[in-house]
């Protein structure tokens, strides 16, 4: 049973104020960022204690706001596309929920890997999906991508709600479906009945098991090379955290939402 989380917030960025006696890779004053989802959370605070392995030094040309927007969302996209989805250059890749935090990173990463990218979301997010680099956009209120007759080599779904049969129909003969977020019912099906995937021939359907901070150095290299950039919808001061979460729950954000601690450090 997971431990109780008393303070929410997993993606952080800031400066190191103090280090323990056994810390060897970081020092006071280092500008760092990371994902605390496997290290106790507690990111929505002015100060947080974190293990050394959960933090990476940020790039000099990366703002604290950008760094805070990267850690979990970019790695969910990377691990879903590269590690779980086995993306290859030239593939047709569809990203459902492409206008949110994970989705905007996924579009950019899929283009970096040489894929032809289709992004799916609501009409208000189609422009941001195009800005992220998608070759084609679909308004889900106008067209159901599982019934449009098209087939995709990889489907990364951040807001999964279709049936497994629907996803099977939309995949190419050897395609991969990777669930990153969405319906808990569907997630339970994929976890409990994953062995049924064998009935789909060479098609695979699975759920991503996120590994915090694994691949963060690679993401930082892509940022430094100008291959990806965090798309930030809004920033809120910490005192307005409740309002920020209400906005997040509406699902209307184009990209990421960032909480600002003060004029120097960001979370």
Give an overview of the whole structure.
27% of the residues lie in helices and 21% in strands. By secondary structure, it is of the alpha/beta class. The protein has a 6-stranded parallel sheet with strand order 6-5-4-7-8-9. The chain has a 3-stranded antiparallel sheet with strand order 1-2-3. A two-stranded parallel ribbon has the order 10-11. α2 (71-84) packs across α3. The longest helix has 14 residues, at 71-84. It starts with 10 loop residues before the first strand and ends in a 7-residue tail after the last strand. The model has no long low-confidence stretch (mean pLDDT 90).
Short description:
This protein is α/β, with parallel strands linked by helices. Helices cover 27% and strands 21% of the residues. It has 8 helices and 11 strands.
Round the mean pLDDT to the nearest integer and report it. Answer: 90
Q: Helix share of residues?
A: 25-40%
Spell the H/E element sequence: EEEHHEHEHEEHEHEHEHE
Largest sheet: 6 strands, parallel
Q: DSSP helix count?
A: 8
Low-pLDDT runs: none
Let me know the number of strands. Answer: 11
Based on CA inertia axes, which overall geometry fits? globular
Rg estimate, integer Å: 19 Å
Q: Tell me the structural class.
A: alpha/beta
Assembly classification: single chain
Side by side, the strands of the main sheet go 6-5-4-7-8-9
Cα-to-Cα separation, first versus last residue: 27 Å
> What is the beta-strand fraction?
15-25%
């Amino acid at each position: 049973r997971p431990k109780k989380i008393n303070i929410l917030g997993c993606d952080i960025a800031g400066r190191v104020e103090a280090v323990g006696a056994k810390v060897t890779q970081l020092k006071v004053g280092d500008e760092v960022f990371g994902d605390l989802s496997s290290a106790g959370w507690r990111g929505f605070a002015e100060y947080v204690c974190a293990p050394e392995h959960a933090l990476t030094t940020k790039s000099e040309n990366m703002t604290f706001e950008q760094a805070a927007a990267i850690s979990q969302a970019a790695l969910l996209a990377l691990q879903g596309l590269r590690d779980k989805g086995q993306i290859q250059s030239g593939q047709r890749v569809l990203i459902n929920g492409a206008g949110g935090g994970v989705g905007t990173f996924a579009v950019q990463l899929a283009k970096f890997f040489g894929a032809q990218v289709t992004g799916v979301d609501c009409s208000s997010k189609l422009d941001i999906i195009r800005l992220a680099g998608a070759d084609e956009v679909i308004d889900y209120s106008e067209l159901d991508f599982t019934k449009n007759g098209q087939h995709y080599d990889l489907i990364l779904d951040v807001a999964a709600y279709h049936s497994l049969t629907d996803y099977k129909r939309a995949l190419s003969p050897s395609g991969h479906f990777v669930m990153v977020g969405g319906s808990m019912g569907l997630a339970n099906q994929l976890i409990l009945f994953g062995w049924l995937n064998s009935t789909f021939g060479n098609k695979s359907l699975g759920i991503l098991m996120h590994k915090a901070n694994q691949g963060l150095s690679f993401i930082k290299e892509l940022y430094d090379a100008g291959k990806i950039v965090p798309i930030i919808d809004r920033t809120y001061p910490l005192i307005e955290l409740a309002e920020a979460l209400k906005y997040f729950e509406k699902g209307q954000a184009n990209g990421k939402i960032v909480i600002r601690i003060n004029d120097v450090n960001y979370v």
